[in-house]
Every structure is written in structure tokens, then in C-alpha cells.
């Protein structure tokens, strides 16, 4: 590659990184500032004191919230993987009347905004007695059209020969599903897993509505709890909360980035 | 054979769900352990629920308390509750944060009357009429009568708001009023008398003119600001002795239409519009924090805030802070302020034992000692004026003499149907329309047009509510 | 990991019904088997998507009382009202404007980032990580950060402007700026996801195509126009569709940043629904708005498939 092009690229890369990453770094900086520094509009803290973090953990049961977020995200992830892979399997490997229509029906659920259906859903959850329980926070999200769609795209790339071979080997359809199809689709499953985990971790309004106390509440609600209306908000503590909330997802993302990218692409392309 | 495999699949799925559910229990337990080792200080806050559960086995009456206090007030509230639980081992109050006032009320609406409903719920002042009409609550007057509880020990100007036709429906809890806050240093710099704050509209306008500092096109310091919140508008109307809705502010009957777009409301809008046109009014939006930051960083020299925020402002400002009464038109005799904030309601979806326990807690909250602590910790008023005599409060006033002004303004208020505050069921919606009207005003819409539109929308909201709740 | 050829022949096309009967299971049995596999999804969708959707449509013909129960049947009155209400029309306009800003800008930004991050350079992995990091930022966290950046007196943005000697901007207070500010936040939050997908798409393009072009002496821009973009079109189609649907459903950032203000300039339709239902407690009009929103998304998606897909170049 020519030198000039290389330099131009590096400049573009560095500039874009600075612009994109600035808000996150800034939040990190503010999380170390004391009240006066925040109000004076400083960009860098005078010292890297952890007081705000201590305060954040003291004022709210953050560990409990983090644990709940973890459990709920993991449960939704598992649920989505099972439910979506079953559905995707049927759409690809079983031929039946009305398959296209049914698939379109599935896809159409992507178009229904969650906020618009929240009221009837809240009532349903209440009637099931799932208010303030992990069920209310997880079960409604187990079925995912996006996940079915993504896995279907991947399953379609599985060679027909594999299915024939497994039939010859005497595998039942279900055995074919979990002994052949699932292992072969590991990338997509990991992708969907990460995607499901991230989106659940980031849910905001629903957890607030269906939970009552810290036994099941998630960490996003903590962000809300740190802000007040009639009495001043302590921005340093709020930013410390922001950092605490995003660290687990950022780590997951950094760790799984390659897998995620691979799997998402396969879904998007075909 | 194949059939059984397929069933195996669903059993497996079911198993996973059960697993998730088990996780629930073990999770919470593991978590508690984690916390125990993590920090002992935390116990004061989170320990509540745990010790509570333990106590519940010894048949302590559990009283769930839904509130909307975040940040500092939440900590203060939880401390008060912990003290109460310690002093009353037979009762276990469990405070639960439910988001903003709006969100808390929404949730309560959905679960009201069912077993999921809490024993006590905190609702903002403008939800009062809705709560009364909801049918989910037990008026506290019942307990006041049974118990011969003396309500005259409470601040009259506060109880007036929550008394409807002479009956108390809820117990006032966190109350605040609007005040004018100004930068004394800036006043002196502009050659104004920092010890006598402007009060009439023309005084404010003149002061704002002098306080405004411009650097070319950029305004460095605005003279006057007001948060885009309907509450301040309502207060500026009430203080003129005027009503927000007809039927005497909804106090003598079901209101059918908004009257805030009449004379008094127009006065307020014109007042704001004139300063906005002159470039002496700074608009800092509808976020409480933003306008305070603007004041603290010298972007505005006078603004209206809640009495509950006064102490924080003094703490965080590098200059002398003055606190004064809210403005009024030159030719109007001011009647004072109506209170804002919230009250706590007893619900009717529990047994009498629980109600009695909830009532004990409510009474505890109104004692002078608790109110003194609450007042000092949060800046909300003490609903029991005896609290002001407590040493804790007196010491506080020596450090913050400005707090005295907020109390005086409330005590100086003439009690009328105007300063009692309006009662409408669709208040939250109406307040939104007023906020939009204010925003439109600052963008250049004529005062009358902006106000009339908000009034019209309020009328419609009332009409719809009446039609659908017959 | 799966090196199966990615051509269409190897997969099973949805459309083709069995033309051969030597399959192990007869069709009728297949149907019930398929239903069994689809049952979990179907039950969940019915309970949590289809039922609430029908309930919403039903409620849109009623006024609701304090308990949220339908009390007065009003036919199309709710629809008639919102279509003549200034507020709703404004909200509709704001939503369209918001979609028109965020979707193209977001996709183009992600495309640009993916293009520069697709070059083989030292340390490129680091830049890719940075570019995709926003995907891990929740709506609540991102909005809180930006809320502070936009802060009129303390925010970094205004401080930078004054350091540069420029006049400050009322980011969230001026109606025109507010919609831009909310859009910027949204674009920032969504870049990570779009970037990852487009980068993956770029990496899937056959290297040989570039080698051939390189031998023929084609320049960078020529390659971009003639090879990269056409080959990337399926990926772009996917990301545009997803972005469109997401943009119509924006909620969290509006709730935290502006609450729909100032002067309703950022009152996006989902937020308007939320407020009508959860603050004003008018489930009837809220439901009518939801039905219209659903219609909008449906129309846009159909149009997108009808016209957008024609331009997509499949291998």
C-alpha cells in the first residue's frame, strides 16, 4: 500500500475513534470528579478518586441489581436460543403447507413496537401472577423473530447431503436437529446469544413496570434511581453508575466481537 | 420412539424454565451473602428487606410503601423507615421505589384494588382528585376520627390542600413551594440592593434588565429564568387569587373548563414574554438540574426553584445566594403560594390490621422529630410546624438563614380557594399542555394564542375523562 | 467454521413444496411435526404480540375509564380526533423527520467506518473494537451521557464551542436543534451494530474481484463504485430495513433527553403513545396512535422490499 494512502487512513481512523469514543471517555472522567469539579465544567478530574463509585454502591443495592441483570439476561439468552432454533429448524428442514405465510407472520412481529403493546402485556403478566418475578422479565422475550430469521438464514446454508446422510444413519429428525444442525451452526448461535444478552441487559422501561423491589430489579433501573427531580442530581455518582452498568456489556462485546460479526453477517447476507 | 424423543425436547425446555426459576431463589440468597461480605454499611439500606423477612416470620405486619423518591431523599426516607421498624418490631414497613411520580401512579392504577397493590402509595399533589375518584383508597379521615388524631398540629396551609370538603383523604408528606432565588453578588455588581429582592413584575423586569450581561451576540448572564414546569405557572396564577379551573379551582364541584387563560394567566405569560423579547429571560428547559447549573455557573442571576432545592443551591454556589417570595403583578395583592410535592395514601386492598399498621407509620411520619430530620435532610417542609422548634432545625437555620424565608412564605399565605390549589383529575395532562404553551411562547407565539390552546386542550381532556368515567 | 458453499442450490428454498415423495415422512405428518417445533414460538407470539395487538386495535374504538377498561364505544372518533389534532400531526412529522435524518446518516457513517476499518493495517483490530463498542452501551446509559454532554452550562459541547470562540448552542432547548441532538445521540448509539454488519459484509466479498480489478489498473474509487457497493447491497438492504424499523420505534432517548419537548419538536410517535397511555391514561387514543404507527412501519417495510430489493445485487 502506498505511504500516502496509509497515512490518510490512519488519520481517518484515529479521528473517527476520538469522536466516537469521546462520550464514553468523558463519562469515565466525570465519574471521578467531585461535585464542585463537575459544576465548574472541568474535562479532566483533579484526581482519580473512587468516592463516586463507593457512593453509588452504598446508596443502592447495585450488586443485587447486577446479579439480577445477569440472571435475566442469561435466561432470556437461553430461552431465545431454544425457541428460535426450534422454529428456524422447522422453517428450513420441514416442508409443510403454509410455511411461507407462517414465516411472514413471524417476521411481521418485528414490526410491532413493544411500547405500543405494553399495556395489555402488563395486564397479562399481572394475571399470570408474574409481577415482581423473573418470569415476567424473561418469558415474554423468549420468542424472537429476529433470532428465528437469523438462524433460518444460517440453517439454509447447511448442505442437503448432511440431512440425507443422517437419515441413512438412522437419526430421527430431532436427533438430526441437536446432533448435527446445532453444532454446525455454532457461530450463529453464539451471535444470537450475545445479541439476546445485550438487548436484555439494556432493557429499560419494562423492568421498571413489572418489578417492585430490589429482589428482581435490573441494573438499568439504578440509573433512573440515581436521578432526582426536585433535589439536585449528583452527576459524578450518576456517571459512576453509567460506567458500572456498561462495563459488563463492553467486556462481553470485546470478547465476542469476532464471533458476533461473523454470525451477524451470515444472517444479513443471504 | 420418535414421539418420546420429541416430548423429551419439550420436557427439556420446561426443565430449563424451571431451572431459571430455581435460579431465582438461589440467586437471591447467593446475592445476599455477597452483599453481606461486600459492605456492612450497605446494611442500613438493603438490610431492611432482609431483616424484614426474618421478622415477618414472627408475624410482624408487613406494610409495603411505594414511593417516588430517588437519590438523596430516597436515602433519607429509608433511614426514617428503618428507625420506625426498629422502634415498632410488630410492624415491618417495606419502602419500594417505583420511578417518577407519573410512573408510580401508572403502576398503582394498574394494580389498584388487587393483591399486588401496596399498603401505602406516595402520589404527587396533582394526582389528588384522581386518587379520590379511583375507589382504590381509604380516606385517612377514617383513622383520624377513630383515633381522635389532632390534625391542627399540622401546618394549616399544607393540610388545606389535601382536605376536600373538610375531609382529609391523604396524609401530606413531602411538601414544597416555589421561591425566587437570586445571586447576591451579581445584584451588587449591577448596582442593585442585594438585601431587598424585587417582587413585583416591574421590579423584576427592571432588575433583570440591569442584570443581563451581553458579550456581542452572546448573553453571558440572563436576568431571570423559570423552569418550564407547569407548577410555577400555576403558582403565579394562584398568588393573584385566581383559579386554574372553574368551580372555584374545582374545590366546590367538578370543574368543567380551564380558566387559567383568563386575566391572571395572561399576566404571567405577558410578563415572561416581555422579558423574553427583551433578551433578559434565559430559557434553560424543563430539567431541574439544568436550570440550577445555569444559576450556579452564573448564566442566570434570578430564577424560580422549589424550596426543596434551596439548600443544595447554597452549598454548590460560589457566591452569596438570596431567597425571596415569588413575583406578582404590580396592581395585585399577593395571596401567597399553594403547596406542591406529594402526599401518602392508604389503599383499601388490605386487611384492617395492615391498615392500622400503615396508620401507625403515617402518624410516626408526622411527629416533630421525624419531620425535623426529614426537613433538614431533604429540604422539604416539615408538615408539623413544631419540628421547626427542634434543635436540629434551629442549628440548620443558623447555617442557612435563607431556609427561614421559605417557611415564612408558606406561613404568610392567606388561605383561599386559590391558594388551596386546583383539583382536577386530568392535571398531569393539563400540566403538559401548559409546558408546551410555555415552550411555544419562548419560540415567539403570542401569549394569548399559546395560553388559549393549552386551555382548549385541557377542556377536551376534562370532557373526555367525564365521558369515559360516568 | 462452516465452509459449505454459499450458493442457493445448497440451501433449501422456502418456496418449494415437495415434488418428490421418497421422503421419509408423509406431508401430513410433517405438518404436525413442524407445528410441534413452532409451538413454543407460536404460543409466546400469540400471548405477547398478537393478542396485545388485537387488544390494541379493539381499544382504539373506545374511551377508557380510570382502570383502563373500555367504557364508551366511540367508533372512529379516536382516529378522527388524532388526525385533526395538531399535536399528533406534529408528532408524525417529527417522526418522519427523525427517520429521514437518522437512517441515511447512520448507515452512511457506519459504511464509512467499515470501509476504513476493512483495510489491512497494523492495529486495525483496536479500531474495530472502538467502532463497535457503542453496541454495548444501553439506551439508558448512552442517553444519560449525552444528556450531560448537551448540558446548557456544564456540557462539554458548549464548553468546546466557547473555547473556540463560537456562540453556544441550545442543544435541547431550541426545537430545531433538539431533533438534531436526539438524532445525533441515536446515530451514535446505533453505529456499533451497523458497523459490525457492514464490516462483515465487506469481508465476505471475494478477494479475487479486487485482484482482477487491480491488475486492470482500476483505482480505489472505481473499485468502490463498481465492486464494493454492488457486492455489499444485500447487507446494506438488511441494515437499512432494520434501521428503519428501529427508528420508528425510538423511545428511551426521547424519554431521558427531552420528554418530547421543546414545543413537541421531539415528540416521536412511540413517546407520544407512551405519554397518552401512561400519563394521560387515555388508552383509546393511545391505541389508535399505535395502530397508525404499526401501519406506517408496515407500509415502509413493504415499500422497502418492493423497491429497495430491486436494486440489491445478489451473487
TrEMBL record, chain C:
Superkingdom assignment: Bacteria
Topology in membrane: Multi-pass membrane protein
Keyword Cell membrane part of the UniProt annotation: yes
Sections of the chain in a coiled coil: none
Entry's localization field: Cell membrane
TM region(s), chain numbering: 34-54, 94-116, 137-157, 177-199, 229-248, 286-305
Alphabetized UniProt keyword annotations: Cell membrane, Membrane, Transmembrane, Transmembrane helix, Transport
Keyword Transport attached: yes
Gene3D superfamilies, sorted: MetI-like
InterPro entries: ABC_transporter_permease, MetI-like, MetI-like_sf
Main location class: membrane
Domain ABC transmembrane type-1: 92-304
Stated family: Belongs to the binding-protein-dependent transport system permease family.
Protein name: Sugar ABC transporter permease
Species of origin: Halobacillus kuroshimensis
Taxon lineage: Bacteria, Bacillati, Bacillota, Bacilli, Bacillales
Amino acid at each position: 500500500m502506498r505511504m500516502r494512502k496509509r497515512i490518510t487512513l490512519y488519520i481517518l481512523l484515529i479521528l473517527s475513534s476520538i469522536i466516537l469514543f469521546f462520550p464514553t471517555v468523558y463519562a469515565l472522567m466525570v465519574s471521578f470528579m467531585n461535585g464542585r469539579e463537575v459544576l465548574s465544567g472541568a474535562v479532566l478530574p483533579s484526581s482519580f478518586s473512587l468516592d463516586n463509585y463507593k457512593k453509588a454502591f452504598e446508596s443502592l443495592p447495585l450488586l443485587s441489581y447486577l446479579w439480577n441483570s445477569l440472571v435475566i439476561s442469561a435466561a432470556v439468552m437461553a430461552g431465545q436460543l431454544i425457541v428460535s432454533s426450534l422454529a428456524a429448524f422447522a422453517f428450513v428442514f420441514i416442508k409443510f403447507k403454509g410455511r411461507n405465510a407462517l414465516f411472514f407472520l413471524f417476521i411481521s412481529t418485528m414490526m410491532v413496537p413493544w411500547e405500543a403493546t405494553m399495556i395489555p402485556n402488563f395486564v397479562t403478566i399481572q394475571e399470570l401472577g408474574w409481577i415482581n418475578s423473573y418470569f415476567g422479565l424473561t418469558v415474554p422475550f423468549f420468542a424472537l423473530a429476529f433470532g428465528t430469521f437469523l438462524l433460518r438464514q444460517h440453517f439454509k446454508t447447511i448442505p442437503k447431503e448432511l440431512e440425507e446422510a443422517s437419515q441413512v444413519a438412522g437419526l430421527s429428525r430431532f436427533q438430526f436437529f441437536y446432533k448435527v444442525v446445532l453444532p454446525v451452526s455454532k457461530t450463529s448461535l453464539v451471535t444470537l446469544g450475545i445479541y439476546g444478552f445485550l438487548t436484555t441487559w439494556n432493557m429499560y422501561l419494562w423492568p421498571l413496570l413489572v418489578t417492585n423491589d430490589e429482589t428482581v430489579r435490573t441494573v438499568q433501573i439504578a440509573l433512573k434511581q440515581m436521578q432526582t427531580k426536585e433535589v439536585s442530581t449528583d452527576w459524578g455518582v450518576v456517571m459512576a453508575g453509567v460506567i458500572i452498568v456498561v462495563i459488563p456489556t463492553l467486556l462481553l462485546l470485546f470478547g465476542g466481537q469476532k464471533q458476533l460479526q461473523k454470525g451477524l453477517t451470515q444472517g444479513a447476507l443471504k | 420412539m420418535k414421539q418420546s424423543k420429541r416430548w423429551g425436547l419439550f420436557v427439556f425446555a420446561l426443565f430449563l424454565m424451571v431451572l431459571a426459576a430455581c435460579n431465582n431463589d438461589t440467586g437471591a440468597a447467593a446475592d445476599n451473602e455477597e452483599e453481606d461480605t461486600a459492605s456492612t454499611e450497605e446494611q442500613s439500606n438493603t438490610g431492611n428487606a432482609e431483616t424484614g423477612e426474618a421478622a415477618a416470620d414472627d408475624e410482624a405486619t408487613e406494610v409495603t410503601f411505594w414511593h417516588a423518591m430517588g437519590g438523596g431523599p430516597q436515602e433519607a426516607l429509608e433511614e426514617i423507615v428503618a428507625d420506625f421498624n426498629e422502634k415498632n418490631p410488630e410492624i415491618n414497613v417495606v419502602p419500594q421505589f417505583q420511578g417518577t411520580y407519573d410512573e408510580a401512579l401508572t403502576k398503582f392504577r394498574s394494580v389498584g384494588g388487587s393483591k399486588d397493590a401496596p399498603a401505602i402509595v406516595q402520589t404527587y399533589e396533582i394526582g389528588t382528585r384522581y386518587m379520590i375518584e379511583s375507589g382504590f383508597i381509604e380516606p385517612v379521615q377514617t383513622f383520624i376520627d377513630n383515633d381522635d388524631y389532632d390534625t391542627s398540629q399540622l401546618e394549616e396551609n399544607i393540610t388545606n390542600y389535601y382536605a376536600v370538603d373538610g375531609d382529609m383523604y391523604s396524609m401530606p408528606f413531602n411538601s414544597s413551594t416555589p421561591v425566587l432565588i437570586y445571586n447576591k453578588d451579581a445584584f451588587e455588581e449591577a448596582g442593585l440592593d442585594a438585601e431587598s429582592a424585587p417582587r413585583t413584575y416591574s421590579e423584576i423586569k427592571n432588575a433583570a434588565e440591569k442584570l443581563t450581561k451581553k458579550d456581542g451576540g452572546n448573553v453571558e448572564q440572563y436576568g431571570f429564568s423559570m423552569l418550564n414546569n407547569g407548577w410555577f405557572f400555576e403558582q403565579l396564577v394562584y398568588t393573584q387569587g385566581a383559579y386554574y379551573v372553574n368551580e372555584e379551582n374545582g374545590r366546590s364541584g367538578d370543574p368543567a373548563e380551564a380558566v387559567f387563560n383568563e386575566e391572571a394567566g395572561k399576566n404571567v405569560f405577558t410578563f415572561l414574554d416581555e422579558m423574553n423579547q427583551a433578551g433578559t429571560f434565559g430559557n434553560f428547559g424543563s430539567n431541574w438540574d439544568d436550570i440550577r447549573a445555569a444559576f450556579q455557573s452564573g448564566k442566570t442571576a434570578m430564577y424560580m426553584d422549589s424550596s426543596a432545592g434551596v439548600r443544595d443551591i447554597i452549598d454548590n454556589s460560589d457566591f452569596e445566594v438570596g431567597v425571596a417570595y415569588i413575583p406578582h403583578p404590580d396592581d395585585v395583592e399577593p395571596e401567597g403560594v399553594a403547596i406542591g410535592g406529594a402526599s401518602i395514601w392508604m389503599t383499601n386492598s388490605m386487611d384492617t390490621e395492615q391498615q392500622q399498621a400503615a396508620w401507625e407509620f403515617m402518624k410516626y411520619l408526622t411527629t416533630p422529630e421525624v419531620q425535623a430530620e426529614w426537613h433538614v435532610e431533604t429540604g422539604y417542609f416539615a408538615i408539623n410546624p413544631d419540628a421547626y422548634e427542634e434543635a436540629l432545625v434551629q442549628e440548620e437555620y443558623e447555617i442557612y438563614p435563607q431556609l427561614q424565608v421559605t417557611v415564612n412564605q408558606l406561613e404568610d399565605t392567606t388561605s383561599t380557594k386559590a391558594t388551596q390549589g386546583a383539583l382536577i383529575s386530568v392535571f398531569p395532562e393539563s400540566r403538559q399542555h401548559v409546558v408546551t404553551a410555555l415552550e411555544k411562547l419562548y419560540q415567539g407565539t403570542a401569549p394569548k394564542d399559546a395560553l388559549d390552546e393549552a386551555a382548549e386542550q385541557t377542556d377536551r381532556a376534562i370532557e373526555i375523562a367525564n365521558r369515559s368515567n360516568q | 467454521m462452516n465452509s459449505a458453499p454459499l450458493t442457493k442450490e445448497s440451501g433449501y428454498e422456502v418456496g418449494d413444496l415437495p415434488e418428490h415423495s421418497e421422503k421419509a415422512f408423509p406431508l401430513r405428518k410433517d405438518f404436525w411435526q413442524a407445528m410441534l417445533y413452532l409451538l413454543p414460538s407460536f404460543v409466546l407470539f400469540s400471548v405477547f404480540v398478537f393478542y396485545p395487538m388485537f387488544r390494541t386495535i379493539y381499544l382504539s374504538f373506545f374511551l377508557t375509564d380510570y382502570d383502563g377498561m373500555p367504557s364508551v364505544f366511540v367508533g372512529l372518533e379516536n382516529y378522527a380526533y388524532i388526525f385533526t389534532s395538531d399535536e399528533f400531526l406534529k408528532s408524525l412529522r417529527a417522526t418522519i423527520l427523525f427517520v429521514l435524518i437518522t437512517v441515511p446518516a447512520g448507515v452512511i457513517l457506519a459504511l464509512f467506518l467499515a470501509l476504513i476499518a476493512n483495510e489491512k493495517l497494523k492495529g486495525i483490530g483496536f479500531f474495530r473494537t472502538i467502532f463497535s463498542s457503542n453496541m454495548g452501551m444501553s439506551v439508558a446509559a448512552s442517553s444519560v451521557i449525552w444528556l450531560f454532554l448537551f448540558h446548557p452550562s456544564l456540557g462539554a459541547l458548549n464548553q468546546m464551542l466557547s473555547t473556540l470562540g463560537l456562540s453556544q448552542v441550545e442543544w435541547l432547548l431550541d426545537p430545531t436543534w433538539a431533533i438534531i441532538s436526539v438524532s445525533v445521540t441515536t446515530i451514535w448509539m446505533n453505529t456499533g451494530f451497523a458497523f459490525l454488519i457492514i464490516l462483515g459484509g465487506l469481508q465476505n466479498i471475494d478477494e479475487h474481484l479486487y485482484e482482477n480489478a487491480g491488475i486492470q489498473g482500476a483505482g480505489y474509487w472505481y473499485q468502490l463504485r463498481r465492486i464494493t457497493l454492488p457486492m455489499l447491497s444485500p447487507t446494506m438492504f438488511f441494515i437499512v430495513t432494520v434501521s428503519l424499523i428501529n427508528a420508528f420505534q425510538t423511545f428511551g432517548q426521547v424519554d431521558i433527553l427531552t420528554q418530547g419537548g421543546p414545543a413537541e419538536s421531539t415528540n416521536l410517535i412511540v413517546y407520544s403513545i407512551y405519554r397518552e397511555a401512561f400519563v394521560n391514561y387515555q388508552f383509546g387514543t393511545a391505541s389508535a396512535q399505535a395502530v397508525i404507527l404499526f401501519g406506517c412501519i408496515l407500509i415502509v417495510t413493504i415499500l422497502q422490499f418492493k423497491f429497495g430489493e430491486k436494486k440489491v445485487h445478489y451473487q
